[in-house]
What we know:
alpha/beta, globular, two-stranded parallel sheet, 4-stranded antiparallel β-sheet
Amino acid sequence: xxxxxxxxxxxxxxxxxxxxxxITTVAILAVMLTDMHETTGTAFAVSTSQRxxxxxxxxxxxxxxxxxxxxxxxxxxxxxxxxxxxxxxxRPAPQLPVWNFIDDLLxxxxxxxDERDTLMQLGIDFGDTVGFDxxxxxxxxVAVSENGKINVNDPLFLDGERARNNVANQLFALTxxxxxxxxxxxxxxxxxxxxxxxxxxxxxAAVIDWWDRDIQRTDFDPGAGETRTGGTGTEDxxxxxxRDDGYRNKNAPLDSIQELRLIRGFSxxxxxxxxxxxPNDPASRILTIYASGLVNINEASPQVLLGRVCAHAPExxxxxxxxxxxxxxxxxSTIRALIPIPLFSRPEDFTxxxxxxxxxxxxxxxxxxxxxxxxxxxxxxxxxxxxxxxxLVRSLATAARIFTIEATGVVGRSRVRIESxxxxxxxxxxxxxxxxxxxxxxxxxxxxxx
Length: 450
């Protein structure tokens, strides 16, 4: 007898379980796929961002180093201009401010290949160049001479009493201390957020006490133009100890511009007036901590130059008559706008301008030749004591040696900015054991990657 077997069909409940298992499996796989896709996408986005940030950083570094190279090679560029300048003025050409045009000069190095049509229309041919194709992004550079500002830090090449007097006289004059009624008087008669009033003399003393080496409080006598220490106690009983987060004077040179915020008197109003009138714009700054103590007359603003003059001739009309002060600053600003080349080959050229002296090729006689006699645009020349004039000349320079260079690299959505301060002064040499000559590309005083 033959036995036959039959397979029983699964029950409906079993079919439902299988369907649920299948759906659950598909859901789990979908979640895993979604998570894998999200993880992969995130990793790709992070990698792309890191790649762009690295490329942007190196584009900024390249722009920074090219700027240093161009500034270092400025004497060679000047030799081509010197004959023309001598023919026009009878004097050798001063340092050319190549850094003011650095962003335009570096455009071929910072411009992507598909955006060079304008440059090619100007006659710049990239056909034979190597290494300029396939730039991943763009770069932008701002270079500013620090020698054109008033230095409130310990000067590089001055020591002791000379250093204190240099800073005190310039800062007091810059803030309008010699004017009978200064537009800045309100800054020194108003309480700050801590309820403290800081006068000009308090401000001058606070700045010097912050970086000088002793612990004696500094006093400044504007009439004599001199500082003295030890007359009113020690720095330890200063106002900083009364704050909630009390601290002491540093008694060492400042390291960054932002450190000025710790010094008495550097309120928001003072900062916006003298330190950085335009936020995040180093070209707008009037004060600096990176300078040798000499003021570059070809780069300093008229306001800074007026303060430098008033430090040595405080009783002159330029310093006591607001109208004459305005004429001086306005005239110098107008001349610079019309003649975008260095105006002074020597410090004596500037003192001749202030005193209205010189030959036909000097600045003041040239201006009087263009303007009608008795013009209200001209300031009245002043007379500076010979001893003070000699001191004024020693405090001036016609070349920039310390620069703030801000280089920005942009690739995709990544933006990297390098802030640096570079010293090219040939009188400065590295401290032991790194003694030697100044490198051709200068040395860094400050370097920060943002």
